[in-house]
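re the bet — no i am not wrong, look at it urself. input seq straight from the record:
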Amino acid sequence: MDHLDFMRLAYEEALKALKLNEVPVGCVITYQGQVIAKGMNRRHADKTVLAHAEIIAIRQACEFIGDWRLEGCSLYVTVEPCCMCAGAIVQARIDEVVYAAENKKAGCAGSVMNILQNPGFNHQARVVSGIMRDECSELMTFFFRKYRSSLQP
């Protein structure tokens, strides 16, 4: 499997989030070419700001590996990680982050800032962007159009 295959799996997680009326972000984490964790946004369902797709997947990956260090892992996510998720990625020592769509308002893998590759931290992740960018951007646009139209009287 390659980046596109794993991003397709993350996209499937985003579609699950969409069905729950959550912001459609999905994530998978791989180790040695195998998926070891999956996550989707669940902030509303779980009623916590911590229920981002990446955080859920990181927790599962730690359980699978049996450690908080996720060295040798790659994280695939449909939207550029925010500051909380980027910080968790650095703390977990994840080697590589592959994301689809940029997050111009909150992205911390290069859009607003680049926490993942900040030389001041003790760990930096390789970053690959743009895999399935159009599909993931369209999914976000669809969700927010639907959300905004529901707010109008």
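see?? Helices lie at 3-19, 43-46, 53-65, 83-92, 133-151. told u. also The longest strand covers residues 34-40. so pay up
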